[in-house]
Design brief:
The protein has 227 residues and is mainly α. The protein has one domain (13-224). 82% of the residues lie in helices and 0% in strands. The chain is built from 8 helices and no strands. The protein is globular, with a radius of gyration of 19 Å. It starts with a helix and ends with a helix. The mean pLDDT is 79.
């Protein structure tokens, strides 16, 4: 039991060190983070000037479309920061599952920050049509977590398979589209007064998709780790 506990502590320390490394790289390469912020701001500004009549459904749909492109731009670069030499060093020091878990955790934190920032810009530029802002904020955080999990898995497999974009599309389409549909329907309840009985079922479906993404990452990524 002591050895098992010590092993868990050791693996947790390795994950923490890898997350810290990604944070330091992000801090040094601020242009990437600010580039995503510029993308969010410009997208919101285009929506602000292009839609004169911003209905609730349009506001909600445009927010999640924006979130999708933010996730793609944010997550895809996380695997480009690791050079081949650095990857060889990681392969000699940590396991594949430790590496992918650290990427999942780091991208999760990054997407939470980006999701809250994009929501703030939407509210500032496009007004606040929300009846239940706390519920919508919760769905935005859950959506950021779900999208980060899915695209981390897809970007990791794509990166280890020679940056094969077609592979990312083929694998991602069956997972991303249902997740976006669930997110749009679940967050739409924040525009309606009172409790919506179908909300828990939608959140449960979203949680199952998250577990599926993590499971696929832990199962598939080790096969590509040494390639």
């Amino acid at each position: 039991m002591y050895c098992t506990f010590g092993s868990v502590i050791g693996k947790s320390a390795q994950i923490f060190i890898l997350i810290k490394k990604d944070l330091l790289l992000e801090w040094r390469q601020k242009y990437a983070f600010y580039g995503v912020l510029l993308y969010v701001g410009s997208t919101v500004l285009v929506i602000y000037t292009g839609f004169l009549h911003r209905e609730e459904r349009v506001w909600n749909a445009m927010f999640w479309i924006t979130q999708l492109f933010i996730t793609v731009n944010t997550i895809a670069k996380s695997f480009l920061q690791d050079s081949p030499g650095r990857m060889l060093y990681y392969q000699s020091t940590v396991s594949a599952r430790i590496y992918i878990l650290s990427k999942l955790a780091y991208n999760l934190m990054l997407m939470l920050v980006m999701s809250v920032l994009s929501l703030g810009l939407f509210l500032a530029f496009l007004g606040n049509p929300l009846i239940n802002p706390a519920l919508y904020l919760g769905m935005v955080c859950l959506g950021g977590i779900s999208l980060s999990m899915m695209f981390t898995m897809l970007a990791a497999i794509s990166a280890k398979a020679g940056q094969n974009a077609a592979l990312m599309v083929i694998m991602g389409f069956p997972m991303v589209i249902p997740a976006l549909i669930v997110l749009v329907n679940a967050s739409a309840t924040a525009f309606q007064p009172g409790y919506q009985p179908g909300l828990f079922r939608l959140v449960l479906i979203l949680g199952c998709l998250d577990l599926l993404s993590i499971s696929l990452s832990l199962i598939l990524f080790p096969f590509l780790w040494k390639n």
